[in-house]
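Practice problem: NADPH-dependent oxidoreductase
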Amino acid sequence: MANTTYDLHNPTIETLLNRRSIRAFADEPIPADVVDTLESVAQHAASSQYLNDWSAIRVTDPDVAAKLAEIGGQPYIAQAPLLYVFVLDEHRNAQIAAAKGVDVDSDAFTLNGSYRFSQAQNDAVLALHAMETAAYSLGLGCVILGSLLNDVDGLIELLKLPKYTYPVLGLAIGKPAQEPALKPRMPKSVQFFENEYPQSSDELLTTLADFDADVHKYYDLRNTERPVDAFSDQIANNAVANMDGRTVGEPAARQGFRLDR
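Answer key — structure tokens:
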């Protein structure tokens, strides 16, 4: 059998290798057929057990977008021509199950457990990533908005999210009005392992010095007026950062999820 030759520089790979977050957008609307295509691509992402347990809210109301920007602390959120919030969604499935005679308020109901919560969250992320990649392939730019989780309760109230739903991430899309440099990536030896996880911390840490220097240089060039710590220092700072208001347990419980089972 002849060996297969792979084109390692095809448009899909080039799109992914050149991915960068875009935080400044041209004041141009996204055509309806492009929006429809992006949403169709998201729907074709993998789905655990085919439960389709995610949804996305397209934000078109400027007031809602402004409130999202306030929650995220990032003004450019409100300026994005196309804006989504992806949510894990067992509400729809609960409604379907109830219509089939399932008591969704009983202990027999499992769609609100920790496993389905995590799998539905995964599904939402996969759908968002598919949409993001498709947008980049069309020459658009995106930024993923984890900052919307600064105030989960406020986000749930703003978007009127019902029981058995939970916000995952936002995605802002538009024609790029900037061309930032590619962010450095850590050495593969620190992130890809064979057969087992390295047992020695030396194996993980010895090759990070050059990466620290690359990251420091990247941030210095991006914003010369506000130096940013090297990668290792950023990790250390985040390891003891105050996470008040960003915990999952209590707001998830208020949304009907039981993460203890």
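Discussion: Strands lie at 54-58, 82-89, 141-145, 165-174. Students who identified this feature from the tokens alone can consider the problem solved.
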